[in-house]
């Protein structure tokens, strides 16, 4: 069996688990089951779920926030201030959410089966000019932040602006925005740190959830050995991914900040608590209301996530 | 057949469609559609029962492309740039520019021709399209040149060649298209076109002065304008300066402070300034309606090619042809520079028969990855690269080279569109006359392209400042 | 190679239908032009809002993305009617009479085939984003402010359907030309030599200052 896999961009930390999975599956089946990974050749990233639904390719990665209405159930993982603190925790909670029948049903509308997450650390802000010393300094700060994070920033008086990720560097250099929110690897690859002066270490307003899915029919068509090889390799692929992110990407992050003399801004816990109070609860309530209206067990999903965070799993 | 062979057969079929005169956009779309059906059916071993499945998957895959690819913020620059050009006519900017250029520059040998070149360069700063630029200046500049005894063929050649500057000097629809296909920063590419565009204009001007000095009775200088007259000609041309400054400031602030926005916004603000100017000059709904309809027609034409070709490109992705071509190019034993020169020559030949936008859209998906691979890959550092520049810089440099080639093709026989336009405007000129008159500019363009290849800094200095 | 082309008219049924359809096509093309104009105004509002009111337009990118299909697709039949989609006429340029119109029939039919398949495919694309059971009937939303995308996706099959009607009309006109052996049939863009095309293109840019001055008087 040969599967086509649709990713985008180029090979990077964010795609290491897929690369590893392909390697493991081919090894375990002695080359009987191979994956042909394409970076952008088969689809654009916002159409990957459509491609899975059509059956144009068998596996793909996408981010829930690209199109909330396509996958409302998993956007629970993108709510601000959930309190997830490690990649391992992000992975475990994502997997638990993916196994929930309502979530599986949501993705089944696309003939898709959720395979694994691409855990990303919490977003934080990189910015130009004087470093903020308290949340009050965010008043009037222009920031590139989309969706839930943008809404959260608005609650402390910041001015969120939307633009595509590729325009962010230029918008910062030209002063259209003073700051941008991304995960560290994206701050590095989109060059937002090049001229930046500060970075928030613990704002942690949230992150994006980017699952890897497979076409359900293709999964069913696999031989038992092939399916076992695929599903049995997910854990090892994720271990490799997290190890790579923690030990390669995050290892480069600190020095990258130091090289450029970027100030690390850490807010006192009571400030973060106040921010969380102002932003998290209204966002969660709005999400639950909107998705209950869609017929999802929204409260239950939200409780599942917050419960696991509280348990510290 | 393996997928690469399918890719080659379908590509051959596409060329046949195009040569037979099928509209390029649809020929590419159909080739892509047939290719997708073929490649999906091949995956099922051509089982008759599976043809329906292959057809459905192919149709639905292709069916995503138009909406998905066209809904892009970067592409929104194209219609705005086209609209600026049409509004500029109604704002009376063309005649104002020529008048100002004449009063300031016509005193040099071959003065009126030199003035024409710089007036077209100035108009290029508001116009995104070459052909339109040649058409306007054929009406304004040729009569004046003929009146003081220029050879009519040469006068026509100046206008045809000057028009090509519009696609290098920003705004430029074709540079935006290149940036989109190769997924590079639109702002940097637009900025990169500025110096090569002015550089081309200077080479044209030097050629004209040289001819005026060596050929007897060639284009006498025009003297006698007072400084008062010179300055009096400036206000009418000022909106151009304003638009140029706006667009530059929206990409990059030369004074180091905050720029005013993104290129997308800059294009739109530029159009708005010209719009106000045109309103002031008496443009009303009938003229605006014409400008909007012409903008719509040209934009639709370009977008239809874009999505048609991208269906074909989607098929190429499934066939992995670009990867195979890049592997082949990098496996050649020739020097990378020689291969690059061969590629540029191939563009010169292809461009003799094809439209510039269609040519770029059809070839770049395969040629661009190969050129990047030749340089050492998209992320290569300057010190390890074959052409001595980093991956992103190579993308910009190659883009300017390719666009310059595409513009060169607008003045070469047998289908140099700019020459046809000039001949069409002037009843007393045949197409052959214009092609004869434009021949000296081939030499100027060859020199320009040679210098851009030999000294990439001409292209890369400005974008590397940002 | 390029742009403009000439379409003859008379009192025949096919020509009357041609002009009727042209009215619709012109309206749609004008809609496309107005969308470009709106895009320009949107940028003015966005930049103005950001610089003078400290408040950028929310979802600016989302709105641009919604406007692009209007610009890109609405004029597609208008361009086909006027021969505005570019092609190489090296071969068709030397053909004449029946041979020419047979060739035109074949390539136009091939376009119709593609367009019919694309109507199917783009409708399916719309259909995947549309769900009457959901709020705002939406199963696909934009990235920043979450507006439904199905209206923009629906524009593609709509515009292509008008194009299909135009192609069928052109095929009919070509059949008539082949059967009567007419040299210059009605209702189809005539193949003109490049010089004539260029002259027509140039006529779009007749000296604007003169024109507007006249208009102002
Ligand atoms: Na230009
Ligand atoms: Na040519």
UniProtKB/TrEMBL annotation, chain B:
Recite the UniProt keywords alphabetically. Answer: Cell inner membrane, Cell membrane, Membrane, Transmembrane, Transmembrane helix, Transport
Give every TRAP C4-dicarboxylate transport system permease DctM subunit domain span: 12-457
Question: Which Gene Ontology molecular-function terms are recorded?
Answer: transmembrane transporter activity
Task: Give the InterPro entries listed for this entry.
Answer: DctM, TRAP_DctM
* Highest taxon listed in the record's lineage: Bacteria
| Compartment(s) where it occurs, according to its Swiss-Prot or TrEMBL record | Cell inner membrane
Give the stretches traversing the membrane. Answer: 12-41, 74-92, 112-142, 154-181, 193-219, 231-252, 264-283, 295-316, 328-350, 357-375, 395-425, 437-462
Q: Which GO terms describe its cellular component?
A: plasma membrane
Q: What Pfam family is a match, any one?
A: DctM
Kindly give the membrane topology term recorded for this protein.
Multi-pass membrane protein
What is the stated purpose of this protein? Part of the tripartite ATP-independent periplasmic (TRAP) transport system.
- The identity of this protein, by name, is TRAP transporter large permease
Organism expressing this protein natively: Meridianimarinicoccus aquatilis
From TrEMBL, chain C:
Taxonomically, the superkingdom here is Bacteria
What sequence ranges are listed for the domain Tripartite ATP-independent periplasmic transporters DctQ component? 39-173
Q: Does the keyword Ligase apply?
A: no
GO molecular function, a single term: transmembrane transporter activity
Q: Where are the transmembrane segments?
A: 26-48, 60-79, 100-125, 145-169
| Similarity remark | Belongs to the TRAP transporter small permease family.
Compartment list: Cell inner membrane
Q: How does it assemble?
A: The complex comprises the extracytoplasmic solute receptor protein and the two transmembrane proteins.
User: What role does it play?
Assistant: Part of the tripartite ATP-independent periplasmic (TRAP) transport system.
Task: Alphabetically list the UniProt keywords.
Answer: Cell inner membrane, Cell membrane, Membrane, Transmembrane, Transmembrane helix, Transport
**Identification of the protein by name:** TRAP transporter small permease protein
> Which N-terminal residues, if any, form the signal peptide?
none
Q: Which organism is it from?
A: Meridianimarinicoccus aquatilis
**Membrane topology value:** Multi-pass membrane protein
A single Gene Ontology CC term: plasma membrane
